[in-house]
Every structure is written in structure tokens, then in C-alpha cells.
Write a structure and sequence with these properties.
39% helix, binds beta-D-ribofuranose, Inosine-uridine Nucleoside N-ribohydrolase, Chain A, 12 helices, alpha/beta, binds calcium ion
């Protein structure tokens, strides 16, 4: 049976591919796409979710806009990586898929409580919506099977020396999620940096020869130029689809259990995920922490999903 999920995202180049993987893979039942401020403002990330659903022929999946700013601090956007639109690179047609007129948090709650079985949340963005859901609707926890998120890192950051972007943008929200008692799987930079879109991967995409594969190639090419300029990567890491892949087949993303705490106060380390794999701190295990990606299986699923969606359109 496909796993029912809600993807909470801020598209975002890698979020866009995560949405396509979730919508195109038979192991997933995508119940909703909710958006949040992160890579860009929530207006832009919502427009981008509609753009992706339009070009990928994803219909019948509700899209709802959520929180416009983090719980405590002002919003920091990722325009250096994702550009002014949040999805720079390709030219998108006018979207034909609309968002629903309901707040993302209310939509999540309605879907969770109406679904016959517990649902997996897959956040690939700052955790503001999820934290508000858990705080505003404490009974929602009983309807969440687990939370498989892209965020954090076992070592070092990409926004400060210590902090990864999604956690750094809203550390208080991440803290609520990691302390919620709900099973959390953390796919951090240490594993997503194994999901490199190499020239071979781009060639496989191009060979699909669909309009959608062309758009994906342009998205990844833009993303690659940002990663080359900012961090000197030869090939860019597609972070967010790794969390979806973990849900599709746990064998693709191998994890260990550990305690994870979010640093809220450090002068230089706010937003860091402190992962205690060797039990120095004697804190209870609260997360599965992803360490290893089977990149061959990962790219097979990503390419297959983009192929399915691209042909659905043709
Ligand atoms: C995360 O930050 C965003 O820029 C990406 O979309 C990803 O979710 C990586 O740190
Ligand atoms: Ca993201």
C-alpha cells in the first residue's frame, strides 16, 4: 500500500524535484502540498508549488499556503541559492493549478484527522507550519505516523558554520518538532550531500525527452551554478528528495538512532542540530538520523518519477 504523506515545502529547486518524486512514485500517496516561507516568501513558494504542479500535471492534490514568517525571528530567504523567484532558471507558463483558500495548518489538520490511517509528514523547509500544527492542534500528533524531514546536519552547516538553512531559519519551530515525541527522521546535509546531480544524472534526465525533463534539467542547471558559485560544488546536492526517498524505500537512506537537540542560544551556533551519536549527553533517543544514501537507487526512483509525470502530460 502506498504511504500517505503530506509534503510541507518552500519550492525551491530541490523541493520541486521532491514534489515530483512524491507525486510520480507508486510507493507514495500524496495527500497535500503545503507551503511555507523559507527559500522565498510564502507568496512565491506557493506560486512555485502551483507552477510545478502545472508543468508536472499534478492535479487533485490540494496546495495550501501556510506561515509567512518564522515563530520568533524575522524571515531570512534563500535567494542566493534559489534566485528572486525562488525557482529561477526555466520560464514557466501561467499556472493552471490553484491553491485552496485554506491555511496550510488547517488543511493539514483536516486531512490528518479525516484520514483512515496515520499520515507521514515530509517537511522540506523551515518547520514553522509543523510547529504551529502541533501547538495549535495538540491532538494532531495521534494522527501523524512519523515526520521525515530534510534539515539539520550531523556536522556543520550551509548557512552558518554550524547551522543548516531549514533549521537556521526557524530554530524554535525545529526545537518543537524534535521535542514532540513523534518519531522524527532527520535527513541532514551529511546525507543529502550524497545526492549529487552529476553530469550522468543530467544526461539521463535529458534522455527522457519530455517537456518536464527539459524543465527539470534547466532547474538543476540553475541550481548547479549557484552551488558552484557559493560553495565550489562540481555537482549540486538535491537535498529535499532524499526525505521523500526515505519514505519510498527505507533501504535507500540508512539511519541510526540518536538524540538530536536544536541549539537555540549559542552565540555562533544558533540553529545547529546537536546529534549525540555516542550518547555523551545521556539524553533519550528522539530521532533516526540519516547517514548513508544509496545514490544509484535514489536516482533511479527520481528519474522514473519524472518520466512517469512527463509522459502523463504528453
Ligand atoms: C535546504 O535549504 C533549502 O535551500 C533547500 O530547499 C533545502 O530544503 C538545504 O539546506
Ligand atoms: Ca526546501
Amino acid at each position: 500500500m502506498p504511504v500517505p504523506i503530506i509534503i510541507d515545502c518552500d519550492p525551491g529547486h530541490d523541493d520541486a524535484i521532491a514534489i515530483m518524486l512524491a507525486a510520480g512514485d507508486p510507493a507514495i500517496d500524496l495527500l497535500a502540498i503545503t507551503t511555507v516561507a523559507g527559500n522565498q516568501t510564502v507568496e512565491k513558494t506557493t506560486l512555485n508549488a502551483r507552477r510545478i504542479c502545472t508543468v508536472a500535471s499534478i492535479t487533485g492534490v490540494p496546495i495550501a499556503a501556510g506561515c509567512a514568517r518564522p515563530l520568533v525571528q524575522p524571515l531570512l530567504v534563500g535567494d542566493d541559492v534559489h534566485g528572486e523567484s525562488g525557482l529561477d532558471g526555466p520560464r514557466f507558463p501561467q499556472p493552471t493549478v490553484d491553491a485552496v483558500p485554506e491555511h496550510a495548518v488547517d488543511l493539514m489538520y483536516r486531512i490528518l484527522t479525516g484520514h483512515p490511517e496515520p499520515v507521514t509528514l515530509v517537511p522540506t523547509a523551515p518547520l514553522t507550519n509543523v510547529a504551529v500544527l502541533l501547538t495549535r492542534y495538540p491532538d494532531s500528533a495521534a494522527h501523524i505516523r512519523d515526520i521525515v524531514l530534510m534539515g539539520g546536519s550531523t556536522r556543520g552547516g550551509n548557512t552558518t558554520p554550524a547551522a543548516e538553512f531549514n533549521v537556521y531559519v526557524d530554530p524554535e519551530a525545529a526545537d518543537i518538532v524534535f521535542r514532540s515525541g513523534i518519531p522524527v527522521t532527520m535527513c541532514g546535509l551529511n546525507v543529502t550531500h550524497q545526492a549529487l546531480a552529476t553530469p550522468e544524472v543530467l544526461a539521463r534526465l535529458e534522455n527522457l525527452e519530455t517537456e518536464l525533463s527539459r524543465i527539470c534539467t534547466e532547474l538543476i542547471t540553475y541550481f548547479a551554478s549557484a552551488y558552484r558559485r557559493l560553495w565550489g560544488f562540481t555537482s549540486p546536492p538535491l537535498h529535499d528528495p532524499v526525505a521523500v526517498a526515505r519514505v519510498i524505500d527505507p533501504a535507500i537512506v540508512q539511519c541510526v538512532e540518536a538524540s538530536v537537540a536544536v541549539e537555540l542560544r549559542g552565540q555562533y551556533t544558533r540553529g545547529a542540530t546537536v546529534v549525540d551519536m555516542h550518547h555523551y549527553l545521556d539524553r533519550p533517543v528522539n530521532a533516526r538520523v540519516a547517514l548513508t544514501l544509496d545514490s544509484e537507487k535514489f536516482w533511479d526512483r527520481v528519474i522514473a518519477a519524472i518520466d512517469v509525470l512527463g509522459k502523463r502530460k504528453a
